[in-house]
Amino acid sequence: MTNRHTMRKVSGFGVLLLAACYAPVAKADTTYTYTGHDFTTVSGSYTTSNFVSGSVTVSNLLPLNNFIDLSPCCYNLPDYSLISYSFTDGQQTVTELNSGPRTFFFVTDGTGIQEWDIRIQDALVHRFNKT
């Protein structure tokens, strides 16, 4: 009788352990922000007080120690997708609503984003890098 009771407890524990291993991971939108330095070379209506700033919102915290491609054609990690973005240089703002083709590459290490290369196209091509 004792062995049967013990086996039921062990089986119950195995089911709980199995359920814990396959439980869905909680996801949360994550926004990364960027503020660049003042421009050093300008033309037209730009001044050396202008700079690029903006944000990128993705469907989950980017994984550490990885290369992540969030370009529309090439998501290399299915649990991560680009939700929205907005960048401004002080005179114009580009978002997912007013721009065309885009590429978003991120390289992370154990502490977070170490490199990113973002290219957004509307009438002009805008390129934002952090290296």
Describe the structure.
Helix content is 15%, strand content 38%. Strands 1-2-4-5 form a four-stranded antiparallel beta sheet, with no helix packed on it. Strands 3-6-7-8 form a four-stranded antiparallel beta sheet, with no helix packed on it. The protein is α+β, with helices and mostly antiparallel strands and 131 residues long. It contains one helix and eight strands. The chain has one domain (26-130). The radius of gyration is 23 Å and the shape is globular.
SSE blueprint:
Layout: H1 2-21, E1 30-35, E2 53-58, E3 66-69, E4 82-88, E5 93-95, E6 102-109, E7 112-121, E8 125-130
Antiparallel strand pairs: 1-2, 2-4, 3-6, 4-5, 6-7, 7-8
- What's the alpha carbon Rg, rounded to whole Å? 23 Å
Strand composition percent: 35-45%
* Fraction in helix: 10-25%
Which of globular, elongated, flat, extended, rod-shaped describes the shape? globular
pLDDT averaged residue by residue = 75
Major beta sheet summary: 4 strands, antiparallel
Give the helices and strands as they follow along the chain.
Answer: HEEEEEEEE
DSSP strand count: 8
Counted up, domains total: 1
Uncertain segments of ≥5 residues (pLDDT<50)? 2-25
Q: How is the quaternary structure best described? A: single chain
Number of helical runs?
1
Identify the strand order in the major beta sheet: 1-2-4-5
- Helix-strand category: alpha+beta
Termini gap:
67 Å
